[in-house]
TrEMBL record:
Gene3D superfamilies with a match to the protein in the record: Neurolysin, domain 3
Keyword Coiled coil tagged: no
A biological process from GO: proteolysis
Start and end residues of each Peptidase M3A/M3B catalytic domain: 2-106
Coiled coil region boundaries: none
Transmembrane segments: none
GO molecular function annotations of the record: metal ion binding; metalloendopeptidase activity
Organism of this sequence: Micromonas pusilla (Picoplanktonic green alga)
Cofactor: Zn(2+)
Protein name as it appears in the record: Peptidase M3A/M3B catalytic domain-containing protein
Length: 106
């Protein structure tokens, strides 16, 4: 399909084979990073639901997530990062301890 419709409208020339091959090879670029991100979500979810004890406070939650980040992030996490505050899936979205299912489904 791409070879048929992938033409500059100015020239109408077909897409060069080498460019087409580069596009095909780039199809999965970044998929490893996406996989690591999903691992981070799943590991954080399972850790908090398995080991967190109410009353330990928010610092314990953020510390647990930061520890997991050392294994799943390519760059060091920012100390002030609070992505957990918006991670509704694991707190109110009906996926409590179930975020791993996204990886399982793949």
């Amino acid at each position: 399909v791409l070879k048929k419709i992938g033409k500059p409208h100015e020239t109408g020339e077909p897409l060069p084979d080498d460019l087409f091959e580069k596009l095909v090879k780039s199809k999965n670029f970044g998929s490893g990073t996406r996989y690591l991100r999903q691992c981070h979500f799943a590991m954080t979810d399972l850790e908090l639901h398995a080991r967190y004890k109410p009353g330990e406070g928010a610092d314990a939650v953020f510390a647990a997530e930061a520890k997991i980040a050392t294994k799943t992030m390519l760059m060091p996490a920012i100390k002030e990062d609070r992505f957990l505050c918006g991670f509704g899936h694991i707190f109110a979205g009906g996926y409590s301890a179930g975020d791993y299912s996204y990886l399982w489904a793949e």
